[in-house]
Design goal:
heterodimer, A: mainly alpha, two-stranded antiparallel ribbon, 11 helices, 4 strands, B: mainly alpha, F1FO ATP Synthase, elongated
Chain lengths: 284, 70
């Protein structure tokens, strides 16, 4: 089994590589935008359907935010709920069948590049096809490389690191706005505090990335476990029982995706409450 | 002898011991707290999930290390 830690580059937008995880997260953002517009257009006093979901999420985070930050928490509810919804949709898009297995073959640019990339072929194809790396016979001996079109947005460290940076910037900016720059900097007289803030960024990003990526590896391993145990990668009949073995793990991944999105948003709120100066703490 | 698979297995295997014990303690204590004080269930659940996220992160670091060894 070969597992790629890096997302694959689909094409280059000028100097910026456009990766498959970026494509998936853009689709997630688009889905959220469309559903938000649909809900907003058909707003009813008595909620139904999708409006229920959005109101439930919003209410949940309103309660959590007011628990953590007092009545100022209402200001940060949209941010926390957005983080939650975006990460949730990304996690759940990542386990949709076809993400990681739908892709295209293309010729590798150079020989050594081909060797590197064929090693990193997303192993999801093995589980779906039931045989290992069903690379179509390449013309005149050139290696064809498989690039999946989609990859779970949070199975890319760039994405989770960016989310962690966003949430840390919001945490500190809100603290500075509420308490003033001098008061906020007084927290960091001890250099260890700065290290712990940097550690928060790392632990944020690695937690989300690790969970989502490990989930994908787990699903792949479970789907191909019969082929791995019997060491027979060419029997296509193994695909169906392999897929059935993976079903409980898909349910588990739905749960993990929810919990990780929740944890990310709640941790943002509770880290915010460490530095945030509420009205009540102004008094003493 | 090929040591790389062993290194991968040890990285995640040893790294999972501590978080495993920690998660057990967190879950057990949360249930204990719920049994004593059922009316604060919501708060206990949120705190439990937060504590578990921190503990689990340690295992995830070990997992990331084991995945990048090659």
């Amino acid at each position: 089994m070969h597992i790629s830690l890096k997302p694959e580059v689909l094409f280059n937008l000028g100097p910026i590589p456009f990766t498959n995880s970026l494509l998936t997260s853009l689709i997630a953002a688009l889905l959220l935008c469309i559903s938000a517009i649909v809900v907003g257009k058909n707003y009813k006093r008595l909620p139904s359907g999708l409006q229920h979901v959005f109101e439930m999420v919003y209410e949940m985070f309103e309660n959590l935010a007011t628990d953590a930050l007092g009545k100022d928490g209402r200001k940060f509810t949209p941010f926390a709920a957005t983080l939650f919804l975006f990460i949730l949709v990304n996690n759940w898009l990542g386990i949709v069948p076809g993400v990681g297995s739908i892709g295209f073959y293309h010729k590798a640019e150079t020989a050594e590049h081909a060797a590197v990339v064929t090693e990193k072929i997303a192993s999801v194809t093995t589980s779906v096809n039931g045989d290992s790396f069903a690379t179509p016979a390449a013309a005149e001996g050139e290696a064809l490389v498989f690039t999946p079109l989609f990859r779970g947005g949070n199975a890319d460290l760039n994405m989770t690191f960016a989310l962690a940076l966003i949430s840390m910037v919001v945490i500190h900016a809100s603290a500075i706005r509420s308490a003033g720059l001098g008061h906020h900097l007084a927290h960091f007289k001890n250099p260890l505090e700065i290290v712990s803030e940097l550690g928060k960024i790392l632990s944020y990003s690695f937690r989300l990335f690790g969970n989502v990526f490990a989930g994908e590896v787990l699903l792949t391993a479970m789907a191909s476990i019969i082929a791995i145990v019997t060491n027979n990668f060419s029997n296509t009949l193994f695909a169906l029982p392999g897929g059935l073995v993976a079903v409980p793990f898909y349910l588990f991944e739905l749960f993990v995706g929810f919990i990780q999105a929740f944890v990310f948003a709640v941790l943002t709120l509770s880290f915010m409450s460490v530095f945030y100066k509420t009205e009540s703490s102004h008094a003493h | 002898m090929e040591l790389v698979p062993l290194a991968k297995a040890l990285a995640i295997g040893l790294g999972a011991i501590g978080p495993g014990i920690g998660l057990g303690i967190i879950g057990g204590k949360a249930v204990e707290a719920l049994g004593r004080n059922p009316e604060v269930g919501g708060q206990v659940r949120t705190l439990m999930i937060l504590g578990m996220a921190f503990t689990e992160a340690v295992a995830i670091y070990a997992l990331v290390i084991s995945l990048i060894i090659n």
